[in-house]
Amino acid sequence: MGTSQSVNPSVKNNPKWGDLSRAISSASQSITISDNQLHGIMRHFVNAVGGSGAGHGRSSTFGRAGVKRVQRFMSFVSDVQTNGFSEALRTIGISDISQLTINEFINYLLAHCSEGNFNLDETAANSAIDELLKYLLNNTESIDSIENLFQQANADTQHEWLCYFFASYIMEFSNELFSTRIFENDGDRIKTFHEIRDYVQRSLATLNRNQNLQHVNWHSEQGTTIIKNLQTEILEIWSPE
Description:
The protein is mostly helical. The chain is 63% helix and 0% strand.
């Protein structure tokens, strides 16, 4: 987890943020955290960030930065499939791939997708993109294998990538609460974090996949709307409005 930004004062002073902290602290004392406890933690999270309306950018605390970052990532995926890998690389500042390493590619794409690091929302969104790229590319062995990965990503695969990003985004944003001050030891923090992360990803696995993501113009308002709708649908799992 890479988030180091302090929580926005408007969040820190929100009693609902305290409710979330207490729910996490209580759950960490359990040998196994129940799904009811995990659901309660996420319900407190959604309430603390302003409800599911945060998915459409109605919260100044959470949601806006994630939409921008992941839309840039999906636009790159679309560019690879529509215009070819070399042309897509030019859009992120790479003109020569003859000596390009995997780490260099990751850094270019991360820089392209990230913008600003001025508040917790931006920091969490940047870290979530970093987590997504590591998840996708840690086992790749060549630039050619990266090209194949993006070229062959069908609608189901792209949906999985989006859900992985949003799970990371939620957890990175919550990082301020996953600090040693509410845990007896770091082992409790790590165990609790992994149980919550696993629960979030299990919850997202059931989301509707009917949208044909391969025919979306990710550079347009259509792409923005689809991402906002998905983010809202995710938050509504724990706080329907």
